[in-house]
Design goal:
It contains eight helices and seven strands; from the N terminus they run αββαβαβαβααααββ. By secondary structure, it is an alpha/beta fold. It has one domain: Rossmann fold (3-Layer(aba) Sandwich).
């Protein structure tokens, strides 16, 4: 088994712990012990990050909810999940998220996502509508603009020949194409460097399926709040 860059400086004991994780997405739970039967909130991070990105929001969420923050496949410490393996897709990832909820006995929850996490919430609404009370989607990609479509086409055609670092930057511009996304792109590139190369390629390949997650989403009667850089939309 090959350990990724994020494992390079870990102790031997910690590496063994990660390698022995069950075939279930790693997650952190935070229980609200002050309220009787509070609802659950599920937090889904963006590409290149992990569940630790929510540290600023956790304090407020924990006042009102039970919280579970899930690390997505291919992201630390889920780089070597056999179930993800060659059978990877946005649909598969949504099902793996539901497996975590099943394991924790969570029948239904509110979902909060950012970027890739928001894309996956659309999949969850479509595949597991009965498990979603409501959703908050930050940085959701409803459609690619012309520049992003061109970069996406070039990226898939040339990914075998482009230097790895170029692909990071290309992916960042596809997902965050606007001028005011500059800081977010730089943060993404720094975080994405921590991913295994093969895992990054998997997610890059899945970008072609992103727009399809929004198709006919209005037909699913789940309350949704879309948060963007200039406006918020409620459905």
């Amino acid at each position: 088994m090959i350990l990724c860059n994020s494992h390079r400086y870990l102790s031997k004991e910690r590496k063994e712990e990660i390698m022995s994780l069950p075939n279930l997405l790693h997650h952190q739970t935070y229980l609200n012990k002050k309220k009787a039967n509070p609802p659950w909130v599920v937090l889904l991070h963006g590409i290149g990050g992990n569940s630790t990105i929510w540290y600023k929001q956790l304090k407020k969420f924990k006042r009102h909810f039970h919280v579970i923050a899930i690390d997505l496949p291919g992201h630390y410490p889920n780089e070597n999940l056999q179930e993800w393996g060659n059978d990877y897709s946005l649909e598969k990832c949504a099902d793996m998220i539901i497996q975590v909820l099943d394991e924790k006995g969570i029948k239904k929850a509110h979902f909060v996502g950012i970027s890739l996490g928001s894309v996956l919430i659309h999949q969850l609404v479509k595949r597991h509508k009965d498990r979603v009370y409501s959703a908050v989607l930050g940085g959701m990609i409803l459609r690619f603009n012309i520049l992003s479509q061109i970069l996406l086409f070039l990226g898939h055609g040339l990914k075998r020949f482009l230097p790895y670092m170029w692909l990071y930057q290309l992916f960042a511009h596809i997902m965050m194409p606007k001028k005011n996304h500059k800081q977010a792109r730089l943060m993404f590139i720094n975080e994405a460097k921590k991913m295994c190369k093969n895992e990054f390629y998997k997610w890059f390949k899945l970008t072609k399926d992103v727009q399809a997650t929004s198709k006919n989403i209005e037909a699913y009667e789940v309350p949704r709040l879309y948060i963007g850089e200039r406006r918020s939309l409620v459905h």
